[in-house]
Each structure stands twice: as structure tokens, then as C-alpha cells.
Amino acid sequence: MGQYDKIHLGCGVKHLPGWFHVDALNYDHVDHVGRVEDLSFIPDNSAKLIYACHVLEHFGRNTYKAALKEWYRVLEPGGILRLAVPDARAAIQLYLSGTLPRGIEDVRGLLSGGQRDEYDFHGMMYDEPSLSEALEEVGFSETRLWDWRKTEHAHMDDYSQAYIPHMDKENGVLVSLNVEAVK
């Protein structure tokens, strides 16, 4: 297995054993401290799987496709880019339903970021059609939804498993848009 077979971008405090971790912040398990849109240290066609959970929305409308192109470059033919981003459609529908106990506050962080550090601000929103279109535009051949329960990292509670009400994975609404793209 190669060093870059499985890459976890924007991992934050989440550690996946056996993966190569990239984050702008220096946590103990991070293998490369740096911005996730600059993977120039990784050769072309090196990765089988790239996982970026609630990372892509941190780029602006004029920069997110450059990040996708860089991730595409690093993937080998047939490789998978596994993305999780806030699901704008789900969040907006919940807000408009009028059933959220705290109203807009219940979706504010999902749409604008937690704003806990300089990297925790959102610059983009996605629904499935807009994200799939962007992925195909940068060269991916296929996009599909993925189920967090059926991944090798399902045990790790991250934002791909974000529900409203919080943590209600049985009755809540999934507010993470989980899309895979094939190179």
C-alpha cells in the first residue's frame, strides 16, 4: 500500500489509522500541515481515495473548482473523491418548515461555518445538482451519493453524519450532502 493511497483532507482532530492526513492546523496525527488545495508534494495519479468531510464549502465561489482540480490530479484513474458538504437544500427546507426549535440558529453554523478559527468560515453552498455539475466540469466521470453507514470510517462520528435534531440518526434529517466522484 502506498503512502498516499488514502488521503484525509481537512481532517482536523479526526484520525483515520492507515490514512495520510492533511490539515492547515498542526494536530499530532497530521502527516502534512498545509492548505488542502495545495497537494503539490503528492505526485499525479497517486491516491485511490480522497476523503474531504465538510471541507469544500470553506472555499469561495471563485476558488473551489481549483481545489477540485488539484484533488482530481492526485487521484489515480478510477480513484474516488468522497466529499461531504453541508446540504443547503436540506437546511433551507428545514428552516422553511418552521419546525426548528431555535429557527435560523439551528442551521446557521451549517450554512456559515462554526467560525472558531480563521479556517472555519463557509464560502459556498451546495445541493446535489450543483456539486455533481462542478465535479463533472473538472473531469470526474461519475458522481453518486454515498451512505456514511457503509464506509470504512463509519465508526468515526464526523459531519458526514450530521443530523437535525443533532445526533438523531434514526429520526432526524441528514443535513450533510455526501457525494462521491470517480476519476
Question: Any overview of this molecule?
Answer:
With 183 residues, this protein is of the alpha/beta class. It contains 4 helices and 9 strands. A hairpin with an 8-residue loop joins strand 7 and strand 8 (173-174). It is globular and about 50 Å long.
Task: Please give a handful of descriptors for the protein shown.
9 strands, alpha/beta, Rossmann fold, single chain, 183 residues
Q: Numbering strands along the chain, what is their spatial order in the largest sheet? A: 3-2-1-4-5-9-6
The helix content, as a percent range, equals 10-25%
Q: What is the subunit organization of this protein?
A: single chain
**SSE arrangement, N to C:** EEEEHEHHHEEEE
Q: What do the pLDDT scores average to?
A: 97
Tally of distinct domains? 1
Largest sheet: 7 strands, mixed
- Look up the CATH topology: Rossmann fold
Radius of gyration: 16 Å
Give the low-confidence spans.
none
Percentage beta strand: 15-25%
**Which shape, going by the Cα principal axes?**
globular
Number of strands: 9
CATH class: Alpha Beta
| Class of secondary structure makeup | alpha/beta
Describe the protein's topology:
Blueprint: E1 6-9, E2 20-23, E3 32-33, E4 47-53, H1 64-74, E5 75-86, H2 88-97, H3 105-112, H4 128-137, E6 142-145, E7 163-164, E8 173-174, E9 176-182
Parallel strand pairs: 1-2, 1-4, 2-3, 4-5
Antiparallel strand pairs: 5-9, 6-9, 7-8
Helix pairs in contact: 2-3
Quick summary of this structure?
This protein is an alpha/beta fold. The protein has a single domain (6-182), classed as Rossmann fold (3-Layer(aba) Sandwich).
